[in-house]
Amino acid sequence: MTSNPALGVVFHWLGGLASGSFYVPFRAVKRWSWETYWLVGGCFSWIVVPWLLGSQMTSDLIGTLHETPWRTLWWVYFFGVLWGFGGLTFGLTMRYLGMSLGMAMVLGYCAAFGTLIPPIYHGAFFSSVLPSRSGEVIVAGIAICMAGIAFAGKAGMCKEREMSEEQKKAVIKEFSLKKGVLVATFSGVMSACFSFGLDAGAPIRELTLKRGTSTLWQGLPILVVLLLGGFTTNFIWCLILNIRNRTGYQYISSQIRNHHPSREEELIIETATDAPSEEVVAALPALKEEPERAPMLNNYLFSALAGTTWYFQFFFYTMGETQMGAYKFSSWTLHMASIIIFSSLWGIALNEWRGASTRTKGWLALSLALLVASTVIVGYGNYLGTLPQTAAR
């Protein structure tokens, strides 16, 4: 199967759309605490759907994983666990820095580390990426993406400055630049571990291809192991919250008991790969009144739908990665840019920026223009990499 970077960019855009939209079905979940619906949805995100699609779309999934060296399985799983810790600290970043500055910092770290560390680790960045014309174009696209993320943060901070004092206090109750920068750095690097896990799973790709799996689906077996690591972190945290908040009964009973969210519950597990979605959904119009009892069937169905939608961001990511040629490490930049693009478009469509000054909207427009341009440039750089005569300067 030959590479098609243009098609790869489209796949990454679809993944960004899934990431920016997955929280919408959660709005239909009623009378459940966050930890309950997050874990139910997560079971589909990290366990059910990865195994289901992996089994159906690859050749002998179980045999492939059984043949994979334990060292490879361990590192892929371990990076999934670390990615989960990035989610734990993402909530703290929002608490100390606010939505806009916090997200810009975490996404910036995540995009930079997740994109550049794998080729640097393998010794390819300085030996084959930078010396080539296509590599130079891709690096330029990555730099433009980073600038777009920075301007997105600038737009958000301008918007926050235009809020009233009461609104500011509601958004950032515990602002602390020193704590926020430290936590944002940790969260961004840990969130980038998802990219490291995909890279560490290269032997799994080789094995599943040998067993006859189509090139397009070669990344699905890696997701089975990587997301199991993410499930571990999420499961432990949600279980702790179920116990502390006494909400474990919600999985089996529709009865409503008094529930007051604790401080710990506010530290929801979200990562740089999905966090914008909830804030976008918060801007949607309120639904009808809460029912007297939890609608169990609906809650399970909509949580499953949300979890499945979340998984599709990486389903399309692995598809896009197969189309990027020799410089597939750039897929991480495309993914991060796509998430911000579609999350911002959601916010615009829902009038989240209504009332903002012309200057603030200008920063947002510049951010979106740079992010869209970065995906085109990175895609073009990968296209150049498919042309033998342009591989080297």
What attributes does this structure have?
mainly alpha; 17 helices; globular
Helices and strands, with pairings:
Elements: H1 5-21, H2 34-57, H3 61-67, H4 70-97, H5 99-121, H6 125-129, H7 133-161, H8 165-171, H9 177-191, H10 193-200, H11 202-210, H12 220-245, H13 263-266, H14 276-282, H15 296-321, H16 331-349, H17 358-385
Helix pairs in contact: 1-15, 1-16, 1-17, 2-12, 2-15, 4-5, 4-9, 4-10, 4-12, 5-7, 5-9, 5-10, 5-16, 7-16, 7-17, 16-17
What would your notes on this structure say?
By secondary structure, the chain is mainly alpha-helical. It is 72% helix and 0% strand. The protein has one domain. The longest helix has 29 residues, at 133-161. It is globular and about 65 Å long. The two termini are 26 Å apart. The model is unreliable at 262-267 (pLDDT under 50).
Average pLDDT level: 83
Structural domain count: 1
The helix count comes to 17
Largest sheet: none
Distance between the termini: 26 Å
Helix and strand element order: HHHHHHHHHHHHHHHHH
> Radius of gyration over alpha carbons?
21 Å
**Total number of beta strands:** 0
Q: Structural class of the helices, strands and pairings? A: mainly alpha
Helix content: over 70%
Query: What shape does the CA trace take?
Result: globular
Strand content: under 5%
Low-confidence stretches: 262-267
